[in-house]
Amino acid sequence: MNNNSTPPEHGFDTRAIHVGQDPEPITGALSVPIFQTSTYAQPAVGEHTGFEYSRTRNPTRDAFEACLASMESGAEAIAFASGLAAISTIMTLFEAGDHIVSSDDVYGGTFRVFDKVFRDFGLRFTYVDTTSLEAVEAAMEERTRMVWVETPTNPMLKVTSIADLAASCAAKGVLLGVDNTFMSPFFQRPLEHGADLVMHSTTKYLGGHSDVVGGVVAARRSDVLEKLRFAQNAMGAIPGPFDSWLTLRGMKTLGLRMRRHESNAFAVARYMEKHTSVESVIYPGLESHPGHECQRAQADGFGGMLSVILKGDLNTAKTFCGATKLFFLAESLGGVESLIEHPAIMTHASIPADARTRLGISDTLVRLSCGIEDPADLIFDIEQALSTAN
Ligand SMILES: *Cc1c(COP(=O)(O)O)cnc(C)c1O
């Protein structure tokens, strides 16, 4: 190779470690410093260093936002105190009377903030199975301003084609927003498929160590970014410097962790699929999954989340969830530790019972977040918990 050739664009894992993270210029500190400051001394009246007040801008948050923007192939990313703070701030793009079409099995907290908070401000929502383009188009109205999708969904792992939806939304001048929490940008980058907004609960895979709550939105369109940046500062739902630093530290190993989350999920899915106490396994990586081909086409992998339907009744499922020792019984997902939960009673309790039944969130449905432990230990844990429950 000749030395004058342009270097290739850096790969994902390299950008995760380097973008926004040049050594600090005064001391050469390699780790981005935690700029634990609320304000910045100004050289003269009307002059400043680019930093005036930490709600508006903070160097540690800047580094986190720059790195995430690169991961998601966005022009910019804007960080928030939680995933729900990110979603709530997105809602300021709209006004009373506007209409939003949303996936019907969205994260429980997303449904709750739409239904119990933003409806009171005059926003209107229709929930549809977004895997059907016809259903989305049929739900659209003159005042529809955004389609909001999770793919794969939580906990049923239904897969929606982002590109098909993006084309339909673009033709109608409707924004497409994707909650990409389950995939992380390592596996799926919705902006590359035409989405306008991509959002994460960084509490999950991006932070990755179950030690920080946060959220982020990335976009390419300057009009959208300008409004969100304004709202971030005006509403103030920002992450602090330490939370920004913790998330950025987690992001450095995102690629390594996602590969292992996925190989563990495959191992657990294949084991459970053959087990006589299991009715069925829902994992997009399995050929039996209805969204498998679509997922293959639009993502670089299948992720670390799976759901299983057990044989038996509510009691079987509750006993199983309580009997695992390595899979901790807890809400949340995406950390290095494996977690197990019962959606109908735990994460999705805020969804009305009839809607839960329609979505398939039954009493015997259990959701697993596969961590990065040794696969043989995870399988042993599942095996002993299944025999305790049966
Ligand atoms: C956790 C989660 C959220 C909410 O994020 P918080 O950081 O808890 O506010 C939104 N969407 C999905 C898919 C999530 O898993």
Short key terms for the protein model shown above:
alpha/beta, 390 residues, five-stranded mixed β-sheet, 12 strands
**N to C succession of SSEs:** HHEHEHEHEHEHEEHHHEHEHEEHEH
Strand content: 5-15%
Kindly, what is the distance between the CA atoms of the first and last residues, rounded to a whole number of angstroms? 62 Å
The strand line-up of the biggest sheet is 1-7-6-5-4-2-3
Question: What are the segments in which pLDDT stays under 50 over at least 5 consecutive residues?
Answer: none
Sheet with most strands? 7 strands, mixed
DSSP summary: helix tally: 14
Radius of gyration (Å): 21 Å
Share of residues in helices: 25-40%
Bound compounds, each kind once, are:
pyridoxal-5'-phosphate
Question: Average pLDDT, to the nearest integer?
Answer: 96
The computed structural class is alpha/beta
Q: Tell me, what's the shape?
A: globular
How many β-strands, per DSSP? 12
Describe the structure.
The strands form two sheets. A seven-stranded mixed sheet has the order 1-7-6-5-4-2-3, with helices on both faces. It has a five-stranded mixed sheet with strand order 8-9-12-11-10, covered by helices on one side. Helix 1 runs antiparallel to helix 2 (59-71) and helix 10 packs parallel to helix 14 (375-389). With 390 residues, the protein is an alpha/beta fold. It contains 14 helices and twelve strands. The structure holds pyridoxal-5'-phosphate.
